[in-house]
Amino acid sequence: MASETSENPPAAGKARTVKVECFRFDPERDASPHFETYEVPVDGETRVTDCLEYIREYLDPSLAFFVNCKRGTCARCSMRINGKVQMACLSLVEGDRLRVEPLKPEEVIRDLWVKTI
Amino acid sequence: MPASQSEYRTIDTDVLVVGGGAAAARAAIASRAQGARTLVVTKSRFARGGATPTANAADLTIDGRSAAEAGLPGDLRDSPETFFRDIVQDGLFLNNRKVVEAYVRENLPATRELIEWGMKVYSYEGAHSQAYVRGINTSGREVLKALRRGLDNDPPEWLEDHMLLDLLTREGQVCGAVVLDQRYGGATVVRCRAVVMATGGWQAGWFLNSASTDLTGDGQAAVYRAGGELADMEMVQAMPACLIWPPSLRNSYLSYILLSCGLGRLLNSRGERFMVKYDPRMAESSTKEIVSLGTELEIKAGRGSPHGGVFFTLEGTTREEFEAGLEAIAIYAPGSVQFREGFPAFAREAFAGRVHEVGNLAHYMLGGIRINEEGRGSLPGLFAAGECSTGLWGASRVSSAISEAVIQGRIAGRTAGANAGTAGSLAPDTAQVDESLARAYAPLRRLSGVAPYELKHRLQNLAATCVGVLKDREGLERAAGELEDIEANVVPELAVRGTRSRLVNFEWLQAIELGNLVQVLRLGVLSALHRAESRGAHYRLDSPDTDNDRWLCNVTARLADGKPRLGEEPVVTTSITPPRGRMSFEEALKVATSSLSSKE
């Protein structure tokens, strides 16, 4: 409720930049999946969901992923993070590269969103 | 009747339940038990969504006597009547007494069922400042697991990843709803005899909030657009001393849990332990309201932290105290990955000397859809349960919202299910369907306009600045003007920028949710302007006293002639005579603080 807000875009003073390689696929429009890379400014310990939300809110609003409970209970943000299945809301961004892929590529509705989660 | 212009499929049912958490799940069970065909529509997964999964510590409350009858340790000195009295006093007498009576009366059978359905109880424990032990320590997840077991006996139908767009009415009676498939973008019209709203609050209006992402005021806004009555919309409860920095811990209340165990201190930017100024006796252990206010007053005076809060430190805590605190908190661990993993890591870092930034989160919406003790709303065929309703807590909630969800779901589902047997089935008005769908699809079709995320940021800035813990006439008037303009001129211009795909297009879904958020935030602002006093969760810097002679009433809001119209209704009172006269905010809260107004 305080004045901490999402200034537009909140990049100033960020300590580092993370290259996020993101699986993208719209089965109705694309012949095949591809990866898109975004540069996300990061300051302090940051979760993967924060990075993805930054992309959607400031860089590319077309990115499809879902976050619900934000605290490791609902598992709806499950995805492959650097090859490992994890909940994005509990995963910290480490290093300067991040690769995110859907849980099951064969079940993708769009991007990181699959039928079974 | 003209044929509809839009494409949609139609489903018939008796009772439509909207929501994905405990209130919706329990309402569906109750409705099925009445023999009613029941359909659940939820933005998330059924009986896995809403705010329920975010609940972790002492998740249910029940009076000691009923607890003993349910087979828990209990306390025979306590009773439902005593619990009733406490809820009304804590709510500063704005509670609908009949709704509170129903809550304490049905707590025992509702809790018993959860235990029968396999809900694990980790411990039975007391919360701070309560005279009797009333907390059942389980978890929101356990409650949902038990409810899914309850649902298995006689399951309803459900549509997951479906968003409510609008209620449909005919001659003032609710007869259906329009819903949107979030995955593939198609629309469905549900024809029904009753709707139970169980959609939670509108915490998404604030960047700093403690809720899950699906709480965007959809139910309240749909009821408002359909002509139904809302109340107490000015009452937004904050959770103080929650983590806001670093981002990896943002919106977590682990720091608050430590404080509530007596560990840790809040400091301003000068390194002063400011809470001793506001409550010399209790300091950080004061009530949530006082800690929230003290924090905001420091921020307002320019003594906040870089990211808009204050500082939390464990400096001064001995290792012995720290380990004892961790042990006390470990009882919550089985129900929560946050408590198992995140908490010890955070606490040890803090103990090693790291200072975190903490602040107030928008936590619980006390206002919402006005209901009676049977869960009936103001329109025939409309019912509501849980956080999206209002009446139970009055101006402040200190007992469990998960208990509220379960008990009120049980009540509203039962009434709606029984009602469905007698209500006629009215054919929805296709003009209403067309209008709803035209509004919903417009942002997807519009070629240029306002980007939804820009409006989201604008709204959250406005909410943080003018509709936070500290309110005053000037800020509220500015917010009211801005929200009126946004509703009239910005929402109708929202346009997706990223993709026109209908497949899980979150920018589009966001645009629809923003329409709801704008309406409920606006009603909150207008109601806060109207209530020119301070009471519980509602604090006006320009009217800091609690005035029982003028304001022992519920502020209502409804749509009339295309505009919000506010009103006042006397509080439904059975027993307990409310106090008279004007008293200071702290006196009303029964907190022995030095005056909040002597803040400098």
Present the secondary structure layout.
The complex is a heterodimer of chains A (117) and B (600).
Chain A: E1 16-24, E2 34-42, H1 48-59, E3 78-81, E4 84-87, E5 97-101, E6 108-110, E7 113-114
Parallel strand pairs in A: 1-5
Antiparallel strand pairs in A: 1-2, 3-4, 3-5, 6-7
Chain B: E1 9-12, E2 15-18, H1 22-33, E3 38-41, E4 60-61, H2 64-69, H3 80-90, H4 97-116, E5 123-125, E6 135-137, H5 140-152, E7 157-159, E8 162-170, E9 173-181, E10 187-191, E11 194-197, H6 218-225, E12 230-231, E13 236-245, H7 254-260, E14 265-267, H8 275-278, H9 288-300, E15 310-313, H10 319-329, H11 337-351, E16 356-365, E17 368-370, E18 382-384, E19 389-390, H12 401-420, H13 430-445, H14 452-466, H15 473-490, H16 506-530, E20 545-547, H17 548-551, E21 553-560, E22 563-570, E23 582-584, H18 585-589
Parallel strand pairs in B: 1-10, 2-3, 2-11, 3-7, 11-18, 17-19
Antiparallel strand pairs in B: 4-6, 5-6, 8-9, 9-10, 12-17, 12-21, 13-16, 14-15, 15-16, 20-23, 21-22
Helix pairs in contact in B: 1-5, 1-12, 3-4, 4-5, 4-12, 6-16, 10-11, 14-15, 14-16, 15-16
Polypeptide structure, described:
The complex is a heterodimer of chains A (about 120) and B (about 600). With about 120 residues, chain A is mostly beta strands. Chain A has a single domain, classed as Ubiquitin-like (UB roll) (Roll). Chain A contains one helix and seven strands. In chain A, strands 2-1-5-3-4 form a five-stranded mixed sheet, covered by helices on one side. A two-stranded antiparallel ribbon of chain A has the order 6-7. The termini of chain A are far apart. The N terminus of chain A is likely disordered. Chain B is an alpha/beta fold and about 600 residues long. Chain B has three domains: about 280 residues, FAD/NAD(P)-binding domain, CATH 3.50.50.60; about 130 residues, Succinate dehydrogenase/fumarate reductase flavoprotein, catalytic domain (Flavocytochrome C3, Chain A, domain 1, Alpha-Beta Complex), CATH 3.90.700.10; about 150 residues, Fumarate reductase/succinate dehydrogenase flavoprotein-like, C-terminal domain (Methane Monooxygenase Hydroxylase, Chain G, domain 1, Up-down Bundle). Helix content of chain B is about 35%, strand content about 20%. Chain B has 18 helices and 23 strands. In chain B, β9 and β10 form a beta hairpin. In chain B, α1 runs parallel beside α12, α4 packs across α5 and α15 packs antiparallel against α16. The radius of gyration of chain B is 23 Å and the shape is globular. The model of chain B has no long low-confidence stretch (mean pLDDT about 95). Classes of the chains: A mainly beta (about 120), B alpha/beta (about 600). The interface between A and B is large, with 44 and 66 residues.
